[in-house]
Amino acid sequence: NKQVLVKEFFSGFPKDSDMLFTTSSINLKLPEGSNGVLVKNLYLSCDPYIQYLMSKPSLPSNIDSVQPGSPIRGLGVSKVIDSRNQNFREGDLVWGLTGWEEYSVISSPGYLFKIQHTDLPLSYYTGILGMPGMTAYAGFYEVCAPKKGETVFVSAASGAVGQLVGQFAKLMGCYVVGSAGSKEKVDLLKSKFGFDEAFNYKEEPNLDAALKRYFPEGIDVYFDNVGGKMLDAVLLNMRIRGRISLCGMMSQYNLDRPEGVQNLFNLIPKRIRMEGFVVTDHYHLYDKFLEMVIPLIKEGKIVYVEDIVEGIENAPSALIGLFHGRNVGKQVVVVDSQ
Ligand code: NDP
């Protein structure tokens, strides 16, 4: 069983030396009395929160950390090989919480969804049809409460979540601008995902001026994936009764001391609503979300870009790449495409 183990708790940017690629043996049958499932992992999802799971618990988090010596835990797409759980049968395709290894025993499969629609790429269940898709859906429709014609700004806009938020906003008839960290990503935002405008935040000496250029009348909705300086500049450019959904803070996770945001005062005179959210609180909407998104994919009204890496041995560098913006689109690792 090829595995990627946590070697050291992560601190700062994740490094190769924090993880260990190894091979061990596994019994391909579950013990009597188990209520779990044994799965063969097909695709693993590289997600920013994995950094939290592998860090010494310090920040308040709704996720338990993984101890050194254990396989990295994360979301993936898997096939059930053996089941002692009434909800799953041998041969079922599932997505949910698994291990960074070829085969995993999932003793309490609470965070495991049976895949019903197998006529779309299975890897999509690490992205558009899985947790990042639900994040974009809940964060945009539920938290941002957008209206047709509003102005929308999305940061980390070409990533797993951002590319969908931008497309949802366009479908709703909003004016949408995205920021990303390279020319290739900026081109993708405009040519593939249909953003009205996009810019490379790394090339903007003054983020406030950049936002004023794209939003001369201000921003109604900000979907924040990065926090920090970008959030601060956005606060200066929000419109009255604007909404900010705090999805993530990519620019802050690896800092010893997170950057202070200076411009919070703007929330008061502009009556801005700023709200953090956690996607798992919204999973009751999953079936409704699939009903909306699957036809959109099939009709070509929504596209999804994945950055696919072959081989579990390459998973550590793919994960590290997220924190340096090396992924173009949703970062997926193929363990076995069958
Ligand atoms: P992405 O696919 O967008 O990958 C991360 C991207 O973040 C990188 O490609 C990079 O893009 C950008 N980035 C990296 N470092 C920085 C930095 N210092 N400053 C600004 N941008 C940076 O990730 P996801 O779409 O999976 O996740 C997006 C956000 O959503 C994350 O903050 C994540 O934690 C959050 N999230 C929150 C959830 C919730 O329940 N609230 C659930 C899922 C995700 P670029 O080249 O453009 O800089």
From TrEMBL:
SMART domains: PKS_ER. Keywords: Oxidoreductase. InterPro entries: ADH-like_C, ADH_N_2, ER, GroES-like_sf, MDR_fam, NAD(P)-bd_dom_sf. Residues 15-333 form the Enoyl reductase (ER) domain. The keyword Protease does not apply. Signal peptide: none annotated. GO terms for molecular function: 2-alkenal reductase [NAD(P)H] activity. It comes from the Eukaryota. Pfam families: ADH_N_2, ADH_zinc_N. This is Enoyl reductase (ER) domain-containing protein. It comes from Acacia crassicarpa (northern wattle).
